[in-house]
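Structure tokens please, single chain.
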Amino acid sequence: MSAAPVLQVQGLSIRLPSGADRALAVEGVDFSLSAGQTLCLVGESGSGKSMIASAVMGLLPKPQVAPVAGRILFEGRNLLELGETDLRALRGQRMGMVFQEPMTSLNPVMRIGEQIGEVLDAHCSLSAEQRRARIIAALTDVGLPEPELIAQAFPFRLSGGQRQRVMIAAALVLEPVLLIADEPTTALDVTTQAQILTLMRELQRRKGMALLFITHDFGVVAEIADQVTVMRFGRVVESGTAQEVLRAPQHPYTRALIDAIPHGRARKSGAFTSAPLLDVRELCKSYRASGVLLRRGREVHAARHLNFTLSRGETLGIVGESGSGKSTLGRLLTGLVHSDSGQVRFDGRTLAPELRHRPASDRACIQMVFQDPYASLNPRHTVGAAIAAGPLAQGQARDKVNTLVTDLLGKVGLGADAAERYPHEFSGGQRQRVAIARALATRPQLLVADEPVSALDVSVQAQVLELFEQLRREFQLSMVFITHDLRVAAQMCDRVAVMYRGEIIEIGDTADVLGRPQHDYTRELIAAAPNFFFNQSKSSNS
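Here you go.
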């Protein structure tokens, strides 16, 4: 006789406030999760995945958003009937949750050890020595180096992967029977993501807990799931074992999500014989990191003697882990960061190291698309004003610029009426389209795209990647495409440069670098990519 499920969601419906795009965020959802099992909730933004997680944890913003039907049974108790005191007793002790962005979940002015200690203080009565031992044990359990030092550090001193490990440690310090992970690896580089997924699987097996894993990436699903539930617009459209859903999806929406995964097949490189548009020579940039925990500050080499060229119409991918120097390189090219030495030559002329020292024509010829468009767009300016700012600064006439704004909005798939709206009125994918339109407004010859699709749903990501490719052909753009997703690099780039600790350790045609890597680090990146050849294997099995 099998044990009763740890978690059962039965007919759950969650109401949205009046004026929302639909009445119910979640409608009639059913699933169950047993000890030692991983259930992946899959779907795009707005599908209701995180709403379910918040309902289980009792974190919905009531009364505006609240359950109106169904039950959530946890160890036989209906969580929807419990008061806040009972829920608080369960949170942390019996149920834990890991959120998508650890930096927004961790208190920036509290040391790591104290933040984990708060969980213990809420549920246990421990001596100072016992409390410290539990904190160190939790940090050790998630594979953090020098846990005694980590416990004394502040969150900003840690990398993204280390902060996510801290969140997992805090969620597991009391060994809950249910762990909810809400998009915990979305913005992490491939090696860190692989480490986090392996860690969660290992901890799950060791502790026998049930894991509810929320994601939009079927590549991650293939790595970790036992069961899969696919959601769209608040409803379950398909559920089954991971093998059933991945190998033989029944619903068109599931098939569309799987087809939207970058295929990972290297594109055929074009023949670029003209003189290089961009010529980077011996480019260097170092930062001085301040000391921490009685340690002396150290010099961080973000760019070490970088050398490469880029032809007209060519796309060069820059890949590597967080901290490898990819974004620094992008900022050096655009002049947002001052180089220590070396040259950036563009169309035969040497560019000034800093943007403010470059003439207007040089500023216009290289534009950048950032990872987070919401952070790079002024929330007080309309979209039309944001796009028009560059051409107006160049001295173009207002009437001509207004026509240009309307034209660019159309080219990126947004209507002319979008010009009068503000950034918060758009979805993440739409804001990225606006950021691309703004970058194109000065008619650049080179576009630097810094992780432009890493935080987008797979279907939206596919649309934005197709938009980049379409605009590259139409505007005859050269691109430096920075990404940690090798599947995206394979699809988008003619050549790939692999960066490690500020150096380019391997560069060549995409098919050669990803198909026949020469450097051990490149091979590690490819091995760590979640289900890198997913679509190839899918195609061969169909």
